[in-house]
Prior knowledge:
This protein has twelve helices and ten strands. The chain is an alpha/beta fold. It has two domains: 161 residues, Bordetella uptake gene, domain 1 (D-Maltodextrin-Binding Protein, domain 2), CATH 3.40.190; 124 residues, D-Maltodextrin-Binding Protein, domain 2 (3-Layer(aba) Sandwich), CATH 3.40.190. Strands 1, 2, 3, 4, 5, 6, 7, 8, 9 and 10 form a ten-stranded mixed β-sheet that branches. The N and C termini lie far apart (56 Å).
Amino acid sequence: MSTTPAIDRLSPSQAGRRRLLSALALGPVALAAPSLHARTFPDGKPVRLIVPFPAGGGVDLLARPLAPALSEALGVPVLIENIGGASGRIGTQRVAQAAADGHTLLLTNDTLVAADAVAEGAPLLPHLKPVTLTISSCNLFITHPKSGITDPASYRRQLQESKGQLTIGVPGWGTAHHLTSAALNHQLGVSAKYVPYRGGAPLIQDLLNGTLTAGVVTMAAALAHIQAGTLVGIAVTSKTRAAALPSVPTLDESIAPGFTHKTWQGILAPAGTPDALVARLHAAIGQALKNPRVLEVLPSQGFDAEGLPGTDFGALLSGSLRNFETVVKATNIQATQG
């Protein structure tokens, strides 16, 4: 372990850096203070990283370690703003309408395209520019210990016996989690009663209280509760079992052969953002994803780092949209139902 020299031995530039590090430790107010005179990316202003879901959900769990690592890579503060509501569309719209200067970014998941597939209004995706696919993961079907559901087979049995009345919580109507569950029900030939929430965190709270039978969330949002035994993992949507939850079976191996869904999270900017800024942001995000503090967190949350550039991310967005549109057509889900 190295020691830091006394402040009176520092050069003027080192002393300035010390003051910057001290400001970073004080939180968002200090981060945005005028004393930040290091003018990088490209004019020294803070970057707003908007998470279009409440704190505590799967996207927010990535944002927390990623933001400080991205701040280091860009040389400016990166401030997280949770703007939930309307299956992520309120926060997403805020980014779509922001100045295209690279200082307002969206960190979201595949609910972005799921909501576009369901929405009756104008789609939001054309107003955004893909920057980086950050991570991939899986969705997780969960329940509470007193529900009587212990595995995929008992989950299917309760769906069949309830005749459409089993309550399943989803982090918003028309989210990727909702459409994934609806697609599974379509394959199984069953139906359910969906309860939309403003994100995964309040959904999990109601599951813990026993007021819901089951729910679908990004794995990271419920991982700690399953490991603690306060919630039960029914099944994951990935092709293979998740390393973080090796005892939880996949849907493919149990009740729904061939059924898989890989969820993802990525960063987007307003549509008019110049390519040069997008390239700078992508490089910084890639650097942040390799930060030891981020790499330490990703596996424990069931996240796999990706780092794909905007062109590849854009192709994934288009493919995801087509898949969700197919689900919406097959299940006749409509925006007005939520």
